[in-house]
From TrEMBL:
It comes from the Bacteria. InterPro entries: EF-G-like_DII, P-loop_NTPase, Small_GTP-bd, T_Tr_GTP-bd_dom, TIF_IF2, TIF_IF2_dom3, TIF_IF2_dom3_sf, Transl_B-barrel_sf. Belongs to the TRAFAC class translation factor GTPase superfamily. Classic translation factor GTPase family. IF-2 subfamily. It comes from Candidatus Amesbacteria bacterium GW2011_GWA2_47_11. The keyword Mitochondrion does not apply. Residues 4-173 form the Tr-type G domain. GO terms for molecular function: GTP binding; GTPase activity; translation initiation factor activity. This is Translation initiation factor IF-2.
């Protein structure tokens, strides 16, 4: 018999726009502080109680571009989505991607405009950008709920929870706890001590200790279950996340675990590249990541010039090094350990290991190694002191801090130490006068093309590139 279950709510949005910080506030944990580079690397699912004591299940998904498949998987299983947009940054590439996912899955959603406590916050600009993307919120000609929040101060959080409750009550989710088991694999990995593990959300039936699990064949029996707090439990009801121990193999992320053979084979993230791509490849790698979702995310970001000889989850081991030596491959390791003994073997065998626990850093470094690179000469540097708008143009007030910056120069925008965009200088002015170039110590206004999402405190570097070479 169908009975109400907790709504499953997915958080979608651009990198560093405050998804995990919001859940941190709600959950009263310190999830964000433990993340490499401040970025959520995995899909996390957990439960909490709202102000009216109703149970809510949240899926926290990464915002980096490479994790797009994980975000889509999250929105596929959700009853409700929260689209996160930072009030200072506005609509960004992964914001648009998330909007597309929401449209494809037709999941009801609301907009949470985060970081509203910042001095650079501009909620009206965010709403205008959303309208340009086809998302019309309340107060801007549409009916999609939108609320400005600050996950640091708690401002707007009660209103957010009230809207979640209202939207969930319009079409209360239901499942049959006595029916056939269906559990959706959000994450899976191979633990060196516990063996294959999977994080699932139960969508129908009840997951129990001792229960055999199936896909196209039996893949084990539930030996232990852990709830969203990591505490052992004996069962997991519909709408509940749980980690399963006792599997005979690592199930594909995105697949279903059931109590009988019903599922067709899931498309595995380890599927090899097409023959055409393989023939075009000119650089071999061995890929090791912590979990299957990360494996899928990294693989989806690789260009056709890269051939994955082998991929898997778990720490780098001696076998990986020996395979890399025989296949003349680079070992790429994401969020896994490289034991000292393995490092020594790699040094002896002259095998290079590229390792990082931050995905954009790993991909950038891999790109430098495998792709033809253009040499860059720095012409000048500057710092953004002001941002304002005249007509349709957004103008950056900049002080040249080094060298010379000229009209038509290519510039790189840096936010902290991270690249945040590239454009050309369309217009260069001192006061109201057009100029060709400016020297160190000069303050000037610049318009960029294409659009560059700068803000006060960012730095720019004017560069000129020279012929491609392999890094």
């Amino acid at each position: 018999m169908l009975t109400p279950r907790p709504p499953i709510i997915v958080i979608l949005g651009h990198v560093d726009h405050g998804k995990t910080t919001l859940l941190d506030y709600l959950h009263q944990t310190n999830v964000t502080a433990g993340e490499a580079g401040g970025i959520t690397q995995h899909t996390r699912s957990f439960q909490l109680r709202s102000t009216n004591h109703e149970l809510l299940t949240f899926i926290d998904t990464p915002g980096h571009a490479a994790f797009s498949q994980m975000r889509y998987r999250g929105s596929s299983v959700a009853d409700l989505a929260i689209l996160i947009v930072a009030a200072d940054d506005g609509v960004m590439p992964q914001t648009l991607e998330s909007i597309n996912f929401i449209r494809q899955t037709a999941v009801p959603f609301l907009v949470a405009i985060t970081k509203s406590d910042l001095s650079a916050a501009d909620p009206q600009r965010v709403k205008h950008q959303l309208a340009e993307a086809g998302v019309l919120v309340e107060g801007s000609g549409g009916q999609i709920p939108a609320v400005s929040i600050s996950a640091k101060t708690g401002r707007g959080i009660p209103e957010l929870l009230e809207i979640i409750h209202l939207l969930a009550s319009l079409s209360p989710p239901q499942s049959d706890p006595e029916g056939s088991l269906e559990s959706f694999v959000l994450e899976s990995r191979l633990d060196s001590k516990k063996g294959p593990l999977a994080v699932v959300i139960v969508t129908n039936g009840t997951l129990k200790i001792g229960q055999p699990l199936f896909q196209t064949e039996n893949i084990g029996k539930v030996k232990a279950l852990f709830d969203s707090q990591g505490q052992p439990v004996t069962l997991a009801l519909p709408g509940t996340p749980a980690e399963i121990l006792g599997l005979s193999r690592v199930p594909a992320v995105g697949s279903l675990l059931a109590d009988k053979i019903t599922s067709p084979p899931a498309t595995s993230p380890q599927t090899d590249k097409t023959q055409a791509e393989a023939s075009a490849a000119r650089f071999n790698i061995i890929l090791k990541t912590d979990v299957a979702g990360s494996l899928e995310a990294v693989r989806s970001s690789l260009g056709p010039e890269i051939q994955v000889i082998y991929s898997g989850t778990g720490d780098v081991n001696d076998s990986d090094v020996l395979l890399a030596r025989s296949s003349q491959s680079l070992i790429v390791a994401f969020n896994v350990k490289v034991p000292s003994g393995v490092s020594k073997l790699a040094e002896i065998e002259k095998v290079r290991i590229l390792s990082s626990n931050i995905i954009y850093e790993l991909l950038d470094n891999l790109n430098k190694i495998t792709s033809p690179q253009s040499e860059e000469t720095i012409l000048g540097k500057g710092q953004v002191l002001a941002a304002f708008k005249i007509g349709q143009d957004r103008i950056a007030g900049i002080r040249c801090t080094e060298g010379v910056i000229s009209k038509s120069d290519t510039v790189k925008l840096l936010r902290g130490d991270l690249p945040s965009g590239t454009a050309k200088i369309k217009s260069l002015k001192i006061s109201k006068n057009d100029v060709i170039s400016v020297k160190s110590g000069t303050e000037f206004g610049a318009i960029f093309t294409p659009y560059l999402d700068f803000k006060v405190g960012d730095n720019i570097i004017a560069i000129v590139t020279h012929g491609p070479t392999r890094s």
